Amino acid sequence: MRLRRLVLRRWVPTVNNARTARQVHLVGYFPGVNHSTVWSDPGSGSQVEFDSFAHLARTAERGLFDYVFLAEGLRLREHKGEIHDLDVVGRPAALPLLSALSTVTERIGLVATVNSTFNDPADLARQFATLDHLSAGRAGWNVVTSSEAFFGANFRRGGYLDRNDRYDRAAEVLRAAAALWRARPGAEFGFRGAQIRLDRVSGVTPGPQGAPVIVQAGDSADGREFAAEYAEVVFSPHADPEPAARLAADLTERLARFGRTREDLRILPSATFALGDTEAEAQENAREIARAQVTPQTAIATVERIWGRDLSNLDPDGPLPHEEPGEDELRRGQAPHLGERRKIAADWQEHAQAEGLSLREVVTRKISSFTLVGTPAAVAERIAADVASGRVDGYVLVPHLQPHGLDTFVDRVIPELQERGVYRTEYPEGTTLRDVLDLPRSPLLTRDIRAN
Asked: What family classification does the UniProt entry report for this protein (predicted)?
């Protein structure tokens, strides 16, 4: 299969436009549980059929993206004791799906979200090495954690893990997996940690990268420290300039403690987008998308999640509830603690009163994803400026329609980025995901990784 390259407007460097400009990195995301995908739209496809994932991957590859990224769902969320029917029901397992996608793509990276709390390092090391082999070095692992018994109920150990121990276990799982990737194939092997112990497990044959690219998404202090030590990409929740700059500065300081620099890490916040031929058209498209994302049912369910009360009698176009949140957690699998819920409720009430917002309007304002809004040229200019600032290295794009929503961005914004000299016109010579991300060798392979 010949890879179709998108080179609609080729950039020719000049003396005044040298190749020193920071290059934009882009990722295509197929989420699982989320409010951003408008599954009710007639343009939406299936969330389980292979063709949906293949289309997204091929489109992202046509746009010369770094990788495609799949979410993980250990269990469907529940709301008031029932399956939360605003969620996606049923999602394929990421690793076998990405293995299949490796056969219909050539260069784009393949990143799976896999939980380190409820999975064992020997199995994970073998599965990721297998994906790396099948894809010729394009595997990545988004390492996530969970301490909730709600998710743990589907696993033999249950929800045993204290919240404070999540990243301790994640670090041990990574170190044990790295030791397996580094071990001589067929050699006897042992690993001793506080939570992980491996005895006489034969080493796995590492893939072309030696270790998959490690992605991290947690934003707590422990999550950031874990990212500074092990991660090569941070899937950031901060896209606005001030919080993005604070995160970059914090990670840069933490990286130095592990002998790493800012250039050893890619920071990629998530963003959706709304394009138009004019600014006014783009703004109107953005409003329509946001309204489709936050239906009246979604608005009420979201407020019930925060307030911990049955609020089904409320008018979504009326005011927020006046009472404080109750003790009940009506949402399982996505419920902040009571103290956090009270802070969120107070913040929402303050904004609603200050700006005269209805319940649905304040929910839309507060839960909507960061959105790149404008003409293709304006969106490209914004992305280029964000990356030039050093706050971020690009974006993880989450279209509101799956799987075809990315097509418009690839067709209209990528050429604008190329014209500005901040985006590749072909993939680099190196064939691995780490080559595409322009990253050094994995820290898991270059440092002395010990059990403790």
From this structure: Belongs to the NtaA/SnaA/DszA monooxygenase family.
Same-domain status, 256 and 198 = yes
Cis upstream peptide for 399 (omega within 30°): no
Q: What pLDDT is attached to residue 8?
A: 37
Pick from 65, 108, 72, 393: nearest CA to 232: 393
Nearest to 145 by CA among 70, 205, 223, 211: 223
My answer on whether 241 and 169 are in the same domain is yes
Shared-domain flag, residues 118 and 168: yes
Predicted pLDDT of residue 85: 61
- Count CB atoms within 10 A of the CB of residue 80: 14
The whole-angstrom separation of Cα 79 and Cα 162 is: 24
Residue 15 CA to residue 26 CA, distance in Å, equals 27
Question: What is the reported pLDDT for 334?
Answer: 64
Give the domain extent around 363: 295-367
Residue with tokens 């009360």: 309
270 is in an annotated binding site: no
Q: Looking at the domain assignment, is residue 344 inside a domain?
A: yes
DSSP state of 79: E
Which runs of consecutive H residues, i.e. helices, occur in 3-144?
50-62, 94-101, 121-134
Is 46 annotated to bind a ligand? Reply is no
Mean pLDDT (10-residue bins), the chain, 452 residues: 38 38 95 75 88 97 97 74 64 92 98 91 94 98 82 67 83 92 77 84 85 94 95 96 97 97 97 97 95 90 91 95 84 70 93 95 89 98 97 96 95 98 97 97 80 50
160 is in an annotated binding site: no
pLDDT at position 147 is: 64
How far is it, in rounded angstroms, from Cα 209 to Cα 132?
7
Instruction: Return the amino acid letter for 57.
Output: A
Q: Which residue do the tokens 């603690």 mark? A: 337
Strand partners, 394: 25
Give the three-class secondary structure for 177.
helix
Residues 218 and 206 in one domain: yes
- Chain mean position to CA 218: 10
pLDDT at res. 6: 42
Question: Do 226 and 251 contact (CB within 8 A), yes or no?
Answer: no
Annotate 317-386 with DSSP letters as a single string.
TSPPPSSPP-S---EESS---HHHHHHHHHHHHHHHHHHT--HHHHHHHHHPPPEEEE-HHHHHHHHHHH
